[in-house]
Amino acid sequence: MSINDDIVISPIGAVHPRLGSAAGKVEGRSGGHSGAPQPQDDSADIGLSHGGQAAELLFSATMDQTARLTGIEPEPALRPESELPGISHSQHLLLGMVMLFERYGARHPGLSPDEARQAFAPLAREGLERGFLEACQVLAQLNALPPAAQAQLQGLRQMAAHLLDERFSQA
């Protein structure tokens, strides 16, 4: 069964509507059930495509936060999600955490695998929570976090937390 946890974020319009140029005008687009133009927020010159960039921001922030908490140097060893076909955002997060766990275990050779897992699991959960907060804060500062996108990002965080619990609670 494939997990579909894509985040959908709509592009945001131009930055300076008061300048009076064509670049500053916000035009509605057809959409929704009525076919009428939908109003757009005109608050930033940033657009996130298909939610992948927000999910990548969550991934990056989570890996950084978890690496800091575990005392491991952040390393961009994991391939970008776009190069991993068929993998969901939450599975990508879990894969990154497993790679950090392997490095954590190598850094603490005196710990048994069970002890390493017990020590790493709460740090991974905390890293996910901090990464989520950081990603939401960045997107909010960019005015690129409408309530629907925040709910989808929250769902991704919850799915990743569930996968973490399953993976690191094994005996």
TrEMBL record:
UniProt protein name: DUF5610 domain-containing protein
Residues covered by region (Disordered): 22-48
Organism listed in the record: Chromobacterium alticapitis
All residue ranges annotated as the DUF5610 domain in the record: 53-164
Cited Pfam families: DUF5610
